[in-house]
Amino acid sequence: MLYIEDTFYTKQMLTDHPVCRLNWLTDPAQTVVAVCVKDTAAWIAFCLYMKQMHGTVVPLHPDLPEAGARRLAEQAGCDYLVYADFQQPIRLAASTVRPGGLIQFSSGTTGDAKVIHRTWASIDEELAAYGQRFPLTVTTGTIVACPTSHSFGLICGVLATLERGATPIILENLSPKHILHVCQARPTAILYAGPGLVYLLSQFKQRLFAVMISGMTVPTVWFEAIRDVTDHLLQQYGCSEIGCIALHPAPKSAQAIGYPLPHLTIQTGTIDELAELKVKAGDQWIGTKDLMGQTSTGELLFFSRLDEMINVSGLSVYPADVEDVLLRHDDVEEAVVFKRTDRLQGERVCVQVVSSAKEAALRTYCREQLAPHQCPSDWTFVPAIEKLPNGKVSRVRLGVTS
Amino acid sequence: MNLLLDYTSFRQIVEEQLEVTLRQAVMGGERLRDDLQLDSMRLLQLLVHLELEHGYVLADEQLAQLPQMTVDQLLQSLARKEVV
Amino acid sequence: MIKVHCLVSCVCEVIKRSDADHRPYYFGIWDADFALTSEFVLSHHAAHISHEAMLDWYRLLYGITVQSWYDPSRTKAANLVNLEQFMKIKRPEQSVIVMLDLARLPERENKFHHEVFPHYVMLEPTDDEDRWRMLDPDFRYEGEFDRTRILQAVDQPTVAGGFWFDGSQVKLPDTETVSAYFMSGLKRHHPLTEAVEQVILHHASSPERLPDALKQLPVIAIRKYAYEHAFAYFYERLGIDLVASDFDDWCDKIERLVNQYTIIQHRAIKYSMTRDRTDLLDIQQWLVAQTTLEDDIKRQLVDLFSRFQQKEGETDATRTLYDQLPASSTVIR
Q: Are C214 and C265 in contact (CB under 8 A)?
C-alpha cells in the first residue's frame, strides 16, 4: 500500500491499526476530529479510516504547540482534538455536524485563518480528474517530501498515488541528503516537495527523475535550477478550497500554470486581456485572486497576483499596506506603491510619491512603521501620480514605464 | 644549519628574478612578506625559479604559509626535487 | 576572523557592537561578484560591480539603510568637497565609508602589495580638523592620517564610491529574512573556479600573461572564508557543539579550498615558464579538485540550512503553493 520511510504498510496493516478502533469514536460519520500527531502511520491510517466512514478530519501541522492546535480545532468546530495521543483525545465544545470530508485552514494576512471544508465526494472527483491528467505512467510511485497535513502532500501526494494503484513513499526526515538518497533508491518515482526544498536539492547536482512543484511565485533562478536537474518537471496549481486546479506536464517557466483539470469549470482572461481566474465549486464561484490568461491551446499562464502582492525574495508585501502608512504622514499627499522586477534582484518595492517631505525623512518614517522588507527601496518624487486615461492608477504600468 | 642556499645567493636570486632591491641585509630572521615586502605572487615566482633553475621545491601544503615564513624557514623547508 | 570582503567588514562593524549576529550577512559572500575582463584577467573590483543588492539585504536584515553619498555623475572634485562637508557635520552615530586606493598610503600594511588597491574604509573626524581617523575593519587597522593624504587616496581614477548610514538602531534579523537571504545567495556552480578555468583556457597557448591574469586570485579566494561564518552560525543555531562535532573538519576543508587556489596560482606561474603540457594538466586536475571540494562544502551547508529551517519552523522550503499564498481566494457571490 505505502511506505513511511523504510516501513512498508499493507492495506491490512493500516486497517488493523488501533486508530481504526478507538473506543471514543463511536459514530465516525457524525464526528469532526482534529489530528495533530507526529506519528505519520497513525495519521494516515486514521485519515483513510475516516474517509471510508464518511467522517470529518482536520489535519494540523505536527509541530503546532497544543494551545495553537486547540485554537484551530475550536475554530473548525471540532468534537475532538487528538494531540499526540489517539487514546486520550481532548474533548472540545463541538460543533455543527459536517457531511464528512476534510477541513483545512488557509493562512490569512490578518487575524484568523479561514476555515475551508471539502467533502470526500469533491476530493474523489478531484482525484479522478487528477489521475486522468497525470502525465507519467500509472505505476509511478510518489516520494512525498512535504507535510501530509496539507492538501498538496495528502491529496496529490498520497491519495492520488493510491488512486492510480501506485505506491506512495512518505518521508518524515526532510533533510536534503536523505531525500536525495531516497530518490536515488527509487529512480522511477516522482518527488513531491515545496519548490524551495527542491531548489536546495538541486544544489547537490544529482539528477532527479521527476519532480512535481507547485508554486507560480517561484523565482526564475529556482525554476531554472530545478529544471536543469530534473528529467520530468511537472507543475500544478491549486488552492485549499478547490484542490488542484491545473496541471502542467512540461512547464517552460514558473508562470506556466498548466491545463485546467476536466472536472472544473473556470473563467479567466486571455493573453491580451488578462482577468482573475475564477473556479466554480458547486454553485459558487471562487476567485483565486490570481490574474491569468489562457492561450488558444488551453494553457493557463500566470501574470500577477490581483492584490499586486510584491514578493521581495520570498517576503510578501501588499502595496495597500505600505500606501496606508505613507498616506498617514502629514506631508504626503499621494503615494502609489508598485513593484519593479529584475532578473538578479527579483522584485523590489517602489513608490511614487507626491510630498514636500525629503526622501530621508520618509524612509525613516517607514522604518518606524513597517517591516524592513516592506519599506520601499526605490523612491520617485513627482508633482502628480501618473494616471490612466480613465483616471485610475495602474501599478503595473508604473512598474514598467517609470 | 645546512641550508640549500646561503643568504648571499638567496639575496641575489631574489633581486635578479623578482627585480626588486632588498633594503636590508639578509640574516635569516626576516619575514618574507612583512619585512622583505615580497607579496605572495612574487614569492610564488621565486619558488618557480628555484624549482626550474635549481631543482628546489617546497611542499604544496606549505605554499599558503609562504608569505608568513622567515628566510630561514623557507630555506629549511626547501627540498631537492626528486627526479622521477 | 579572517578579512573577507572590505565593504561587508565595514558595514558589519556596527552590527558586531550590537546584539545582532553579523554572521548571516556573510551568506553568499563566498560567491560574491568579481570581474573577469575581456582580456581574461581576474579582478576583485570593477566599476560595474554594484553593491546595491548587498546593501538592500543589509537593510532587510538589520533595518539600516546604507545610502551612497558618492555621486558618479559629478566630478571627483565635487565629490571630495561633499565628503569634506559631510565629515564636518556628521553625527557620532553616523558612519562614513569611502573607497580609496590603499596603495597611496604605503604606511598602511598592504599584504597584497598591489600597485593599485581599491579598498573600502571608514572615516571619523578628530578634534583636529586636519586629521581624520581611519578605521579599516577588514585589516583590523585603526589610525590617524592627515586629511589631505586621505583625500589624495580617494582622489584616484581607480576608485569611486562611498556610503553613509545611521547605525543607532540595529534590528535583530528575523529567521524568515535570514532564510530568504541564504536562499538568494545560493549558487549551484562555483563562479570563481569557473572563471579561473576560463583564464587558464584562454592563456593556454601563450601563457606569458597568465601570471598577471591571476594576480588578484588570492584577494578573491579569501572570500571563501565566509563559509566558516555560515557553518558556525548554523551549528550554533542547531545547538551543535563546535568543539565536539565535525565543525573543525569543515573549517579545515574551507581552509584547504582557499589554500589550493595558491597552489593553482603557483602552477600557473610554473606553466607560464615551462609551457609544458604536463603542468597544464596538473592545473586542470587541481581545478577539478576545487570543484569537488566546494561541491562538498556547499552540500553540507545546504543540509545544515535545511535543518535550521526545520528547527526554526521556517517552512519556506517545504511550503507549497497551497500554503504560501495568504487568503488565496474569496467566494464571489
A: yes
Which residue is it, cell 584577467?
Answer: C41
Does residue B15 sit in helix, strand or coil? helix
In the structure, what pLDDT confidence band is assigned to residue C325 with cuts at 50, 70 and 90?
very low
Do residues A227 and A335 share a domain? no
Task: Indicate whether A371 pLDDT > 90.
Answer: no
Taking the C-alpha atoms of residue A352 and residue A271, their distance in angstroms, rounded to an integer, is 28
Domain-embedded: residue A333: yes
The verdict on a CB contact (< 8 Å) between B48 and C265 is no
Q: What DSSP line would sit under A304-365, residue for residue?
A: EETT--EEETTEEE-HHHHHHHHHTSTTEEEEEEEEEEETTTEEEEEEEEEESS-HHHHHHH
What is the predicted pLDDT for the residue at B20?
87
Domain-embedded: residue A4: no
On whether both A106 and A192 belong to a single domain, the answer is no
Neighbours, chain C (3 or more CB pairs < 8 A): A, B
Q: Does B12 touch chain C (CB under 8 A)?
A: no
Number of domains within chain A: 3
β-strand A208-213 against A7-9: which pairing, if any? Answer: unpaired
Boundary-marking domain end, from A57, A84, A117: A117
Sorted by where each starts, the structural domains of chain B and their CATH numbers stand as 7-80 (1.10.1200.10)
Asked if C111 lies within 8 A of B33 by C-beta distance, the reply is yes
Find the closest chain C residue to B61 by CA distance: C259
Q: What is the complex's ipTM, to 2 decimals?
A: 0.93
Tell whether B51 lies on the interface with C, counting CB pairs under 8 A.
yes
CATH number of the domain residue A89 falls in = 3.40.50.980
What is the predicted pLDDT for the residue at A196? Answer: 86
Question: Which chains form contacts with chain A, at 3 or more CB pairs under 8 Å?
Answer: C
Chain A residues within an 8 Å CB radius of C60: 312-313, 315, 372-373
Q: A224 and A282: one domain? A: yes
Q: Is the same domain home to A246 and A338?
A: no
**Can you give the residue range of the structural domain that contains A396?**
310-401
Residue C228 makes CB contacts below 8 A (sequence gap 6+) with C2, C251, C254
Of A84, A99, A117, the residue that ends a domain is: A117
Question: Nearest-CA neighbor of A61 among A147, A146, A172, A171?
Answer: A147
